[in-house]
Design brief:
349 residues; 18% strand; two-stranded antiparallel ribbon; 12 helices; globular; TIM Barrel; alpha/beta
Length: 349
């Protein structure tokens, strides 16, 4: 099975020495986030997630365009929110970005409330599904004939095509029944947040069944943090240091400010924390303490290099091909993972 190792560009003010403690040197800026991207590129990561967050103000597509020529091999996973932009313009932007990256681009589809919006889950996911089908049509260079609830367009695609001539892979995540239905029908890679081994196995089994009903096949990705050190004791100490100065009220505020802070996936991360022991570990090497100051992905693989590599291989055995990783501070943990864990994974690939 193939193995994609991706890092995280932290475009959404999510970089700390200690969670919840502001550090001006680590605040998201074009310069800081570009440095993270270049660090991941230099260290041999296959891809890098370019997240989308309104409150910060850095636009994902514009930022990726700016750093496109400053990378050599890494593939940006470009997050876009369905409904946020006029579809024909979004298609044209993404095609142009694909050319700037010489085809090194995939798209992470996000279905969440737009800034200032509060839409019920059902119609929001219906909107997402229509937008995904329409976007794929235009990126495939095909004429769009859409007469849906949210997309009503009849137009030819832009003259310019992607470098491959086809739509780049669409990554998509979401845990609710509505989200799973959208992924089964329209996504190429289904992304999930941390869960126990049994939980991951159940989700993969369910999503494969759902995709089969549409005569489709899905690939699977896993978004998780990492804390790796030379020894397990050092890794656990580093994990505890991350949350040692966290004010619970600050953690609550950080979790609440996300546009998807009430989603099924976020609730599941809270349940994972509740199921953990007093040390925050819900199963060997999966630590939920990091979720005390994050609204989304709320657990980390913690251990020595062999333990972290073995945990990733266990997920891989369940069908996970793409691992979108992050750690704090992002540049430091990027280098650490690349030097300590990546050789073990590449050797086994």
């Amino acid at each position: 099975m193939s193995l994609e190792l991706a890092w995280f560009a932290a475009l959404c003010d999510d970089d700390y020495e200690q969670l919840g403690v502001p550090n001006d040197d680590l605040r998201s800026s074009v310069e800081h986030c570009e440095a993270i991207v270049q660090e991941a590129d230099r260290n041999g990561f296959d891809s890098i997630l370019m997240p989308s967050g309104y409150s910060l103000g850095i636009d994902t597509v514009a930022f990726t365009s700016a750093v496109a020529r400053a990378t050599s091999g890494i593939t940006p996973i470009v997050a876009v929110r369905m409904g946020e932009m006029w579809l024909p313009q979004l298609a044209r932007q993404l095609i142009t970005l694909d050319h700037l990256l010489h085809g090194r681009m995939v798209v992470n589809i996000i279905s969440s409330d737009l800034p200032g919006e509060a839409m019920p889950s059902g119609p929001r996911y219906r909107r997402t599904l229509e937008h995904m089908h329409a976007l794929r049509t235009l990126l495939n260079g095909e004429r769009l004939e859409a007469n849906g609830e949210f997309v009503q367009l009849q137009l030819d695609p832009p003259r310019i095509r992607t470098t491959s001539g086809a739509c780049p892979p669409l990554y998509f995540g979401g845990l609710s029944p509505d989200a799973r239905a959208v992924a089964a029908e329209a996504a190429d890679v289904y992304l999930m947040w941390p869960d126990t081994m049994d939980g991951v196995r159940d989700i993969v089994t369910d999503m494969r069944h759902r995709a089969t009903e549409h005569q489709r096949q899905l690939r699977f990705g896993y978004r998780v943090h990492v804390v790796v050190r030379e020894t397990e004791r050092e890794a656990r100490a580093a994990a505890e240091h991350l949350v040692a100065a966290l004010d619970p009220e600050v953690g609550d505020a950080i979790r609440a400010r996300s546009l998807d802070s009430t989603s099924a996936g976020v609730r599941a991360q809270a349940e994972l924390r509740d199921a953990a022991g007093g040390d925050g570990f819900v199963e060997p090497n999966l630590w939920t303490g990091i979720g005390r100051a994050r609204s989304g992905c709320g657990a980390a693989i913690v251990g020595d290099p062999r333990q972290v590599a073995d945990k990733i291989r266990q997920y891989q055995a369940l069908g996970i091909e793409s691992f979108i990783l992050s750690g704090y501070p992002h540049q430091d943990e990027c280098r650490r993972f690349a030097s300590l864990v990546m050789p073990l994974l590449r050797a086994a690939a």
